[in-house]
Design goal:
It is a single chain. 36% of the residues lie in helices and 23% in strands. Strand 1, helix 1 and strand 2 form a beta-alpha-beta unit. The protein is built from 9 helices and 10 strands. The longest helix has 15 residues. The chain is globular, with a radius of gyration of 17 Å. The protein is of the alpha/beta class.
Length: 247
């Protein structure tokens, strides 16, 4: 029997996309998984869509009030029972051999945290011809500088590293989680094959660059406890990369 993989999927008002996301999990060639979907009090018909899928491996929990992705993610992580934990946002899509290839990669090299390359698609699923490749290995400082890791590509070994709590910030909580992990494990290792599709959505929280500044400042100063000067440096570096798109 292959080891159980717990798939962590927070969601909020994602009825338009979550069905495709679930189907990408159900098509996996690696079959021993549980998908824990924690609904952050959606007001659309997300619950109706999820409950259409009659698969005991899919577990759905709905929170009573909207509290943010970090709270929903933490709830799912606490419920997870797998040796491995994989992360999948409720609008992203996995290639059907994603879990199998990535677990083989981890076990072959004895890696505890890994990510993969991914490509961008638009709201309708059209490929945008933009592939983002991970670094061969990324340490704490590399993730802090400009996180080259796609959230929906990450798998880590819970048995080796234990469980973590996601810092409670609305944006960038995935980056903050990797930083926590990298205080315990030296590197996140990258598999260069494209195994995930990242959906670029209009009006998402990540599309508002100015709003993002406050989240990143909070992460640098309050969570990572960097100095003011170092925090300013990272905000400026992030601004050049993300806003001016110069690299």
């Amino acid at each position: 029997m292959k080891d159980l993989i717990s798939i962590i999927t927070p969601t909020y008002n994602c009825a338009k996309f979550i069905g495709v996301t679930i189907e990408s999990v159900m098509k996996q060639t690696y079959e021993n998984w549980e998908m824990i979907i924690v609904d952050d009090a959606s007001t659309d018909n997300t619950e109706e869509i999820v409950r259409r899928y009659d698969d005991k491996r899919i577990k759905y929990v709905k929170l009573e009030k909207n509290s943010g992705a970090a709270i929903a993610r933490n709830k799912a992580m606490k419920l997870a029972q797998g040796k491995y934990m994989a992360f999948l946002d409720s609008d992203d899509i996995w290639k059907e051999n994603k879990l199998e290839k990535q677990i083989n990669f981890m076990e072959e090299h004895n890696y505890n945290i890994t990510c993969t390359a991914y490509e961008k698609v638009d709201e309708e699923g059209k490929v945008l011809n933009k592939i983002l490749k991970p670094k061969e290995k990324a340490d704490y400082n590399r993730i802090l500088l400009d996180c080259p890791v796609g959230n929906s590509t990450v798998i880590y070994n819970v048995e080796a590293l234990g469980k973590f709590e996601v810092p409670n910030i609305r944006k960038g909580n995935d980056d903050a989680l990797w930083l926590k992990m990298l205080k315990k494990e030296k590197y996140i290792y990258g598999l260069e094959e494209v195994l995930m599709q990242y959906r670029v959505r209009n009006n998402s929280i990540s599309s508002n660059k100015l709003q993002l500044v406050k989240y990143y400042w909070y992460k640098y100063r309050k969570i990572e406890k960097l100095s003011i000067l170092r925090s300013i440096f990272h905000i400026c570096y992030w601004g050049v990369i993300k806003i001016l798109r110069i690299k």
